[in-house]
Fold this sequence. Notes:
By secondary structure, the protein is an alpha/beta fold. Helices cover about 40% and strands about 10% of the residues. The strands form two sheets. Strands 1, 2, 3, 4, 5 and 6 form a six-stranded parallel β-sheet that branches. The chain has a three-stranded parallel β-sheet with strand order 7-8-9.
Amino acid sequence: MTGTPLIINALGQLDNPNAPQSMEAAGDLNPTSEQYTVDTRTLADARASGLTAVNITLGYVMGDLPPYEHTLHEIDIWDGIIDRHPDDLLKVTGVADIRTAARDGRVGVIYGFQNAVAVGDDVARVATFAERGVRVVQLTYNQANHLGGGSMAPSGTGLTAFGREVVDALNDHHLMVDLSHSGERTCLDAATHSRVPVSINHTGCRALTDLPRNKTDEELRLVASRGGFVGIYFMPFLSPTGHARAAGVVEHIAHAVDVCGEDHVGIGTDGPVTAIDDLDAYRARLAEHVAQRQEAGVSAAGERADTYPFVVDLRGVDQFRELIRLLEQRGYSSGRIEKIMGRNFVDYAERVWTAQPRDAHRDVSRTSVTRLSGH
């Protein structure tokens, strides 16, 4: 295809993993936003890759930090990062900001949670998060919380009564309900309960690799049938061996397209653009990190010290262009590739961030006609 399409990473990072503090953080159980490095290389690589916008994880995910206070602090941290780099970054609170980022050659930053524990027992906090610019809220991480079950929770752990209240509040405030790490029952419950289409921003297909972090066809089909979005990650869970390759990413995308339709599938890499330069040195930190996650009970089946949390031949500044090349090689049209690389996420965002909850399901088989020019 000619030119670079919109590239929206439905879950990723802005970080230079080779910087000293980021290398140190790689061995920590629960690194905070202050430990990531958004430096000249981070920004140059992100822009060189063609990335238009990325949903980054901030706030409480796990551990002993005070969930609500820590989450507000992390929002402050990212507000500061973006304020310091106005020529490179743009905070995304609506689809218009994605258009602006594409036009200006900046990278849009979408604030997202990977755990909704910070809501506590006060559903009114959803309004606070919305006002602060959060646009994506994943209900659970791998464990169960007071909203529902994570992917490693006992089978059949469903959305709780309070979880339904939180979903309602997310609908009311036009925030994405992300079910990436949820267990199957909670995913099905939330997708059915939500008055607004929901998403699975970073996952794989369990029909291809039977691991809990991957989604069943039933989950994928339900989310898509209600106007939602599914992002395929670049993670070890794509392969039974744990050593995922670019060809496997393509196979999971193709399966998701077969199940969901081409209007509902995209990418959520779960990683940064900047590649790790010294993989040998990284392995030692990775082993320590995986051991800590397993000891804390927060890891997912398929995480091992010998598996990278990325696809080794689909990383660095060329990762998106390489994926486009592989999709072209598979015979996908330029229109389908444009949808997968970014347009489907934008159309989904249009349905969630701007639609009134009572109207969100109208004509969900038709994606928005909004088309954006890439940079």
